[in-house]
Amino acid sequence: MTKFPFDRFAKDYLKELLSPLGEVEISREVSGEARQVDVYFVPSLQPTLAPEILGLLGRFTSSTCLIEPFHMAVRLPEVRSCLSKLLDICAKLENEGQPESNLPWLWILSPTASSALLEGFHATPD
């Protein structure tokens, strides 16, 4: 049995939802110390499901992205860790010749975030 059942559930759930739209890799290794991205998603050129059916999640996955779901309020150290993984992956992809336009986005899914955290990142509603 897994030590973190929400983590496993979130990864499996996102994999099932996103598989018709493209390639989903669960627990992708990140270079350096042993770290993993929860979900690494690369959209398919011809998805078998219209992304719009997944609403906001479908919009998030219109391009390559990392998805980090949290079941409790995300905190600054966790955001920093997610950003660090994103930057490591971007550096690796750039070294492989990927153009800036193909680098992944980072989506942190959290049921809530403090006002201080959002203000610290200059987050604004879109």
SSE arrangement:
Layout: H1 5-18, E1 22-30, E2 35-43, H2 56-60, E3 65-69, H3 76-95, E4 105-109, H4 115-120
Parallel strand pairs: 3-4
Antiparallel strand pairs: 1-2, 2-3
Q: How would you describe the overall organization of this protein?
A:
The protein is α+β, with helices and mostly antiparallel strands. The chain has four helices and four strands. The protein has helices spanning 5-18, 56-60, 76-95, 115-120, and strands at residues 22-30, 35-43, 65-69, 105-109. The protein has a four-stranded mixed β-sheet with strand order 1-2-3-4, sandwiched between helices. The radius of gyration is 15 Å and the shape is globular.
* Residues in β-strands, percent: 15-25%
Mean pLDDT: 91
The main pleated sheet reads as:
4 strands, mixed
Catalogue the unreliable spans: none
How many beta-strand segments?
Answer: 4
The gyration radius over C-alpha positions equals: 15 Å
Instruction: Give the fraction of residues assigned to helices.
Output: 25-40%
Which characteristics define this entry?
126 residues, globular, alpha+beta
Task: Characterize this entry briefly.
This protein is an alpha+beta fold and 126 residues long. The chain contains 4 helices and 4 strands.
